[in-house]
Amino acid sequence: MVNKFTHSLSVCIALGLAGSAYAQAPTPFIIGGSEVTVATEDNFMASLRWNKKNETQFCGATVLDDRWLLTAAHCVVDGGGTGESGLTVIAPSDITVTTGLVDNATADIKDIYSATHVVVHPDYNPLIILEISSGNGVNLETEIVNTALDNDVALIRVNRDFNGVGKVKLASTSAAVELDDKLRGQWNDKNLPENVKVQGWGVTENKAPAEDEEEKSLNYEGGETSDVLLETMLASFPIDKCYERFESQDPEGIFIDSPSNTTKLCTLPARKLDGSDLMGPDACLGDSGGPLLTQDNDSNWVQIGIVSGGSAGEPQCGSLTRPTFYARVGTYYEWITESVKTVPESAITLPAFLEKEKEQAEQGCNDSISANNCNIGKNDSGGGYIGGLMLTLLGSMAWIRRKRH
After folding, report:
1. In the chain, fewer beta carbons within 10 Å around the N or the C end?
2. What is the DSSP string of 255-297?
3. Where along the sequence do coiled-coil regions lie (predicted)?
């Protein structure tokens, strides 16, 4: 009888498109965008700012109602944690919000709000979890248990009602299916349609990687962020084609787990930038948490996605062949609408993986090698769970960029 062992490798991921408040995570931006023209009362865009770093903009968000914002979970789950993952949720007191603005440089007191609550989707997990099986150490098989930035959704509540700004229209569960079908029907390999758009205040150009080793150690930069809200049109990339495109990653399936995935959406640039044969417009550094929008049958702009992440390579953003992916709003519509109906008891609502780490810490778990080590558990195959292992794996797989402050 062959003894079979299975290890789950939890790989810390940093491939989100968000600028981190703690300068620990990557950030996206809009390349090739144009300035947004919108009246304040129709403007549902919000800017998340790190109030301990000169109000530095680090992510986008959208206004849901009088007090609530929708953003990406990786915008508010960051480094600095003491548990196995090394992650924690940013304290609401560290986040300020501006709404109703096109030009962030013109923010007045009435435009600035303080966050009071951060609610992360319970199933959010930024880790790639690989289950590697073998018999007698040979014939390794890898199964993706958790893909990159799963359920990348979070909510932020502020201290007072928003002042005369717009509210985004979300794609409901049923509407999302209809819009998926509509966008898929518009796909054309030879003539990519400009049928979705993104908005944000991120950086506006790709910057070549530093050649100096010391400069490289200071993180890969993408230029200055934009004070003015920008937008650009993109092509919705059907999820099955996106899955096939990502299959070349090793191991395959770390971004999209199947051709019928319903938790993520993908886009590609629909055109080339002027003067470039390699790049098109895209979302990237500083735009995480912002919306992916499309028009419904009544020509209303509807939010169908939340800017989330992408794969490694050059250029960092704007690749004509490597997709950007988004959390699919329709999948989380019921959770979003139910969550904003009540004020949370706690200022921070942790995702399950951080809640588990918190419980382990309270039980006195430690990293020593012992029978009671909380970092070693049993899975269904009787193997061990090895948390926090191979943290450098994403150096070759993930889109790892950090913003210099």
Report:
1. N
2. S---TT-SSEEEEE-SSPPTT-SSB--EE-TT-TT-EEEEE-T
3. none
